[in-house]
Amino acid sequence: MKSRFAALLMLWVAICGQASTAAQEYKLALPGYKYEFPRDYFNHEEYQTEWWYYTGNLKAADGHRFGFELTFFRQGVTRESNKNSWLMRDLWMAHLALSDVTGQRFYREVRLNRAGPGLAGVDEKSGLVWNGNWQAKISDGEEELRGVGAAFGLGLKLQPTKAPVVHGQNGISQKAEGEGHASHYLSLTRLVTSGSIEVGGKRYAVDGTSWMDHEFFTGSMSADETGWDWLSVQLEDGAELMLYRLRHRDGSIDPYSSGTYVDEQGRSIFLAAKDFTMAPLGENWTSAQTKASYPEKWRVSVGKLGMEFEVTTPLRDQELVTSYGPSYWEGTVDASGKQGGATLRGVGYLEMTGYAKPGQAVLPR
Predict the structure, then answer these.
(1) What share of the chain is helix, strand, coil (3-state, %, to 5)?
(2) Rounded CA gap, 74 and 122, in Å?
(3) Quick check: 120 and 132 in contact, CB under 8 A?
(4) Domain span at residue 82?
(5) Which of 223, 221, 222, 242 is nearest to 232 (CA)?
């Protein structure tokens, strides 16, 4: 088992290090893409990189609070056509994490696999995206998540209350100057969630809200970009906000950083970099494992929406440390402030990459 994963890891490193060569076989994310649902919930193997990203904030009846993350990543290796089921056309990675906010514990697990004879993959007919016994079952009206780790597990049902939101403009979310530095990026920004979480030998019935991101692209970031800070917030008034800022090596922010505001009715507004600021407030947490220092308190301002609020986390250590690709911080956060004079409150997720020393290339969100 260890030798198989070592071989997969070496291949992952080779893929990341030679992305420019391999990318020639794949399509770029270009303007004019027309989304079709439910088709675009599933696999796009003509693009080199793709992921399905679930995060959420949940509570039990006794007030016990949790955050969760379940993500599936596909990295294209070759477009070669071959009937051999063990040909590694794609590499599949998955992350499963649980933030036990009340218990002040963070649990995480990582998987790396090839598709092989059904080890991981996507099946549009059944609606499944899976890696081993971790899975998402996707349909227009409901989604189901299953994940079992050594110390925790979850089984959740998610019902979207709004239509899919397409981020960016003209079918692409631009990440840097130049053709192809972009992704096709969609989200389900509010999924009413219920189910169960098992941790510490106890089973909790939980409910709350979740968020789903799906992106597919080939080489979206530029060589000068070293990481990003991504934020999703589900506001108490029924609206949602997504922002990301892309960081350059010199610390400056890329002008193609952007975001999306989704109102209570599901209407979306594109936010360019000039429309918002997202700035750390100098309160950092330093990881004992990677020595990375992560800013965990932020001030967000969206002038065109009259928003001013702070982002804080109720659990400082939510770093997902992995040998398979980059380590990063991703966890549950709270938002509190004002919008047009009214109180603004919400919960969400914050992701920060590029702060830990990169083992190899950072995978862009």
Answers:
(1) 10, 50, 40
(2) 10
(3) yes
(4) 2-352
(5) 242
> How far does CA 212 lie from the centroid of its chain?
8
> Cβ of 270: how many Cβ atoms within 10 Å?
14
What whole-number percentage of the chain has pLDDT above 70?
Answer: 90
Alpha-carbon span 142 to 160, nearest angstrom? 7
What's the sign of the alpha-carbon dihedral 100, 106, 107, 108? positive
Model pTM? Answer: 0.91
DSSP letter for 352, please. E
Closest CA to 48 of 30, 22, 71, 9: 22
Helix ranges restricted to H, the chain: 2-17, 19-22
Residue 178 within a domain: yes
Question: What CATH number is associated with residue 139?
Answer: 2.40.370.10
Give me the numbers of helices (H) and strands (E) for the chain, helices first please.
2, 25
Is 363 inside any structural domain? no
pLDDT tens digit sequence for 198-208: 999 999 999 99
Number of domains observed in the structure of the chain? 1
pLDDT digits (tens, 9 = 90+) for 181-201: 999 999 999 999 999 999 999
